[in-house]
Here is the input.
Amino acid sequence: MNKNRVVRLTKNKDSYGITFNAMASPCEVIIQSTDKQLAAKLGELIATEVWRIEDKYSRYDHSSVCSAINNHAGHSVAIDEETYLLLNFAEQCYQLSDGFFDISSGVLRKVWSFQGAQASEGNNDKFPTAEQVKQMLKNVGWRKIYFDQKQITLEKGMEIDFGGIGKEYAVDRAIILAKQLTNSPVLVNLGGDLAVTASRLNNEPWQVAIEHPGRDNNHINFADMIISLKSGALATSGDARRYLIKNGKRYGHILNAKTGWPIDQAPRSITVVAPQCIQAGILATLALLQGANAEQFLKKQEIKFWARR
Amino acid sequence: MMIKEIKLVLLLPLIIGATGCVSLGVEPWQRDLLAKDEMSLNGSGVDSALDDHIYFSKEASSGGKGFSGGGCGCN
Amino acid sequence: MKTNTNIKAALTIATAALLGTSNAAQAETTSTAGVEESAWEFDSAFLFYSEVDRVSASEAIINATKTFADDQVLNLKLTVDVLTGASANGAVAQPNVQTFTRPSGNGQYTITAGDTPLDDTFHDTRVQLNGQWTQLIAPNYTASGGVHISKEYDYLSLGINGNIAFDFDRKNSTFSAGFSYFQDTFTPEGRIPKPFTSMLIGDSSSGSWDDDFSETRIGSEDTKTTTDILLGFTQVINRRMISQFNYSYSMVDGYLTDPFKILSVVSDFNAPDSGIAQDYIYESRPDSRIKQSIYAQSLYHFEHSVLDISYRYMWDDWKITSHTIDSRFRIPLGDTFGRESYIQPHFRFYQQSAAEFYQPFLIDGDTLPAYASADYRIGEMTTFTVGLKYGLLVNNGDDLSFRLEYYRQIPTNAGFDEPGVLNDVDLYPTIDAIIGQVTYSF
Here is the structure.
């Protein structure tokens, strides 16, 4: 794997910006301080942590813990405490969502090829048959996974995927490390999922621009918006570009882990604010899984959010 | 040999056209460099204003970037 | 889904277990509408411009910007400049001493043989105020409006402008359209001369002088209006590059003549005193000018440095065309000198062709053209600017910079044959100038 692992430091007016690439996204850390040594140290610390998490939980990395678990489906694989905690978290999400959120549903992508799909009627060839979906669904099901503090066992043919929580988890880990190192305000942004340690100096908020991730067929984009963030995190779920169209109906990339079919009438994307990034990410995903009721679901939970349809 | 050259000539506009339509622009989170002061199209605003005033009064052209304006009796 | 359970609370507990954090943490957001009010930001600059043996100018700018809630931006700018020194009056150099009347009519000045005639009476102070308000009027639509007032001893300029910009494709592209309108009033000292009348030269203390001088004048003030339309397109090319393209159309109507400029009328090629000035007449320009230009600018961010390069092509109905290339290259120096700093070389190239009525001089006995001006600034000319800027961050992110530039104007002969003695003098003298500037942003 060709990994471009460089940390860049740039001086801005009253802050330092640290940029690096991880998890297939440009990543950014901003520290409101003019202490260059501190900024460099923070950048190194955070980038190292994010890369560590990427290496450990990426399903694309053959030497990752995730790959080890998936490649030994049918056998038990020893796990460490961090992995146990993540699996435990995934378990909670599975239960809270009544089975809609399932980190074993990733295998469905083998029949649902959204990647690179364009919004046209002409890509029906990428559309799976009901039989294909049914067959693949046999390999989905968190209930069929056994794990405890020491080990995990998947049924043969199953896979797990930390893609839905890994990036948000990395943001939260980075914030913990930043708080340990410095009192200066820090913002961590991993490809749009972000969190801050505190408000900027003089209690000023961080200005975060959220733009719609995609365009409609006429290339008209939607209004962006600016969120003033003083503490906490925000995460976005959904991607308007990844969907298929058949018989005039749009199938989004959020799949129902129970049926193997895309969730009907889900918003294109949802951005949620929460104290921790991983919470924001899960809430956004859970809302998408509610389909037409996404907004209602979040309103009922009194959660601050922005939905794009 | 001729055929090869024609192909190249034909391909070139296609490549430019393709990159022109598909990959122009960036996603919001890729604006790290564009957001810097020095990447602003009007980055040296004060310098430009002073320069415009000098060249307005010393040369026959003005404006282009902004309004050419009236503004002083220096020309 | 378990819509009855408090999913938020349950997730908070799950997150605390995962991250080992307390669940007291709160997310706090404010106004989703946009930016909050900021403090005033100031840019101040002092510039010194000095031509060898000619004009010197000092200019001070203070520029204040405040961003209000909802992204409304107020910009106020005060400019004060003082101009002193000598400026070419349009007459050609001669092998003998020349005497000219001052524009005011009060007194005369003489020019040494072989020297380009310069009028050294220029002294002017100008105060300019600009106000500009910019705000979002609808999602992706930004509107801006401004006023301009500039006052000199003999000149008043009032202007308004408006602009609307539309962002699309994730704000990667922007179309903009703007207009500006200026109304200028010129009340030159010594009033406005009658085009093509002879400059009165003689004893200004004589009793009839004032009446005779008044004969050469047509009024005390005149006006001109300038209407500009500017269409622009800005495109983000990629993470490192942004480009802008503009088209501008400018209509200037009214008094476009320079009341201080004259032309030498010299003896023809066959005369025994060929090339010797017989008369000096006030210049005359058309009362309208339509200018158009296209402008392209690109900024490219290399690994560390930033290249800013622009090109402008201007053409007008006076048959002037010009090319301008302007480039700046900003190189960060890191904190080599104990502070974060950068250097920025600047290079500018400009070339213009002459206006169709430009004449370095007129030939005695020839029919007068409809319009004529010997102002080198509308003649054929090439200019260069090379400069270097050094900037550093001081205190709490304040920006201090120094700029030193060298500007050379090289007027050239647009194909005019020179009779007799004019071959022995320099009709197109090169002008060298130094520009120094200090800028402080806080």
